[in-house]
Amino acid sequence: MGIITLTTDMGLNDHYVASLKGTILKSIQDVHIIDVSHTVKPFDISEAAYLLSSCYKDFPDETIHVIGVDSEPIVNFGGTDGSFPSILRYNNQYFISNDNGFFGSFLKEEAPESFWRIDNVLSNPNLFQFPTKNLLLTAGIRLLKGDKMETIASPFEGFKKAFTPIAIMEPNLIKGYVIHIDNYGNAITNIHKSFFTRFEKETSFSIFFKKKDYYIDEISGSYNEVPQGEKVALFNENGYLEIAINRGANGSTGGAQQLFGLHTHDMIRVEFTPQGSRQTLDSFFT
Amino acid sequence: MGIITLTTDMGLNDHYVASLKGTILKSIQDVHIIDVSHTVKPFDISEAAYLLSSCYKDFPDETIHVIGVDSEPIVNFGGTDGSFPSILRYNNQYFISNDNGFFGSFLKEEAPESFWRIDNVLSNPNLFQFPTKNLLLTAGIRLLKGDKMETIASPFEGFKKAFTPIAIMEPNLIKGYVIHIDNYGNAITNIHKSFFTRFEKETSFSIFFKKKDYYIDEISGSYNEVPQGEKVALFNENGYLEIAINRGANGSTGGAQQLFGLHTHDMIRVEFTPQGSRQTLDSFFT
Amino acid sequence: MGIITLTTDMGLNDHYVASLKGTILKSIQDVHIIDVSHTVKPFDISEAAYLLSSCYKDFPDETIHVIGVDSEPIVNFGGTDGSFPSILRYNNQYFISNDNGFFGSFLKEEAPESFWRIDNVLSNPNLFQFPTKNLLLTAGIRLLKGDKMETIASPFEGFKKAFTPIAIMEPNLIKGYVIHIDNYGNAITNIHKSFFTRFEKETSFSIFFKKKDYYIDEISGSYNEVPQGEKVALFNENGYLEIAINRGANGSTGGAQQLFGLHTHDMIRVEFTPQGSRQTLDSFFT
């Protein structure tokens, strides 16, 4: 049984998502249709990329992910601003999106297994009237039905890069960013736990956020390692540093976003103090 | 595998929708259950009709659509105000709703293939306690299981008409209305592109909205034919005139609704200027 | 075909729910996945319990309900404040939740068929990083695949009681509470219709809410038994007293919550006046 997931900014109040699902079922009934989210902020391809990069590993091989965010192609063969409906093969799954920066934001430094542009986009201008359905989803359905990729799309070198903020490492310092605020108000950063392995396990550090107004000195294994209502830093399941309030949530008791005024793109600094480093630093002045 | 779609005003926070789905699965498991929307404005049958009329063509034959909006029957055999749980056969699909104006709003000038009233509504007053489940959905499940329509409902002539605004044509003028604001703030009107075929292809025209404060002089094939942030008029996939902002959306960059203050039921005027018509008009004054 | 339902406070904007669904499909594809709700207020286990207690009867035997609200275990073998991932067998269905009061709130005075604690919770601390997925859902998938309960969990006596307000009966009086406000603004109480059977059918009564500012003197069989916009009391499908406005809804015409300022936990009083009781009362003063 095939699986198609849908990630769109179409919301829950319109007929658009139902049209997508009806179209799938009209062609193939032996399928699971899974909503990743339909409340992506309109045209926010980096939010769509965040969502899929956070959950694709949970899906089985050959899952087909259709991303309906900013999906109208821009056909501009001469210039560099065009965006073409495309298919990424990655981790044995398919990701079908307009090449509007989504793939760059999703892959970051990773390499695709393969990358393809959907053919015959210009054959019928009506396809542009609902391109998520008529271009992207249609390609996904054909893959699901067993059509060969070669009959749907052509290999293409390179996809549009995205200017996503990345975490960087300096001596004794990691600088990263809040990339997502979740339903509880937890702030998920782009600082991966692999960044910490450079330091000795017992190296002390402080995580600063909102400039230096707030900090956390340790990383917990779970929320409940701190008292209820207390701030806590931990690595989430995907290995990214998260700043949260234990059992806090926006709108009720207050989540980290609300209590600390955190927003997407806010800088997070992790300052390390390796044993002896302070002495070394001081030695410059003596 | 059968398909049941659900369109309700029950929202996403209650158990009602889960009760509907559990009830389906208790009777039949070889089924796809598709949510059209559960965030229809309470009792807004014309919104439900808009959603279904916009997406039913995407579903395969024999799909069963259950509409749970204003579904408590009003049994009033003498008067004309009654509303009875009913089944419409149309486009080889079933639409099951209370006859509260939904069918009139959905069909407009179209004729049903057939129309039926569900029998035995009064047999058990408890059915009225959750009529979408106990009357409408139950009938849908029986159809899905292969019960003959004759054992569920009786043919009935006529259904309740709805007073929906329709677009009208006058000489050199189309007057229509905004019938839906979508998730992006796009204003969808009830002006169909077939209305334009009366005029020569090169006839110039202006689309006026919010009285004459704003207008658009041409119809684009897709959003991106105008610059980002610019107003654009186009026909949507169903052929209806839509007024939008390219890559605009309410709440972020601003959609058409937000920027122009457009609302459902606002009038939209398309004024045509056939070659020579200006002269003709002017000739009255000379 | 198995059924898993999901009830969480994860919202619709994150990847968490998609991760749950992908995880199910990675293990088993012959399954229906049903969302009860993902918009439970964060950490509000009594809301989750209300939703499930309101709809579980609609699901077939052997349905597996996974409740992802406040699901991080608190492992505290010595004290009494621990909460362990647990499985309740009830009504021939499974309910899998952290034992954080959910089961107490769900069962109230009912007895489980059996109750179990999931084993090996401490075997891998990483399981705590997404416990709804890695502890609760994983157990549900194993049950669905036919694993014996004994290999997943161990029988346990007792579960955490919840301090949920219950309705009480005094002579000629029922005192209960609003336990839920639904999408229309209807106020659902915890007063069951069985409480009324103690009195003669023709005993007159008044239902008072918001102290004594408002009252209703009779119980209707359906909303439409009162005029549109009028207040109405009825028993909902599960037998609980509900206070509503016929065809009213919050945000449009005004639901009961909005018009009467009703909130969850507000007291509702039903005062009965058995024939002769007034005389009896008066006789104290004559």
- Amino- and carboxy-terminal Cα gap of chain A: 72 Å
Radius of gyration of chain A: 22 Å
What would you call the shape of chain A?
elongated
Overall pLDDT metric of chain A: 91
The most extensive contact between chains is: B-C, 34 and 39 residues
Order of helices and strands of chain A: EHEHEEEHEHEEEEEEEEHEH
Q: Helix proportion of residues of chain A, in percent?
A: 10-25%
Assembly of the depicted chains: homotrimer
Poorly predicted runs of chain A are none
Instruction: Please summarize the sheet with the most strands of chain A.
Output: 8 strands, antiparallel
Quick rundown:
Three copies of one chain form a homotrimer. By secondary structure, chain A is α+β, with helices and mostly antiparallel strands. Helices cover 19% and strands 29% of the residues of chain A.
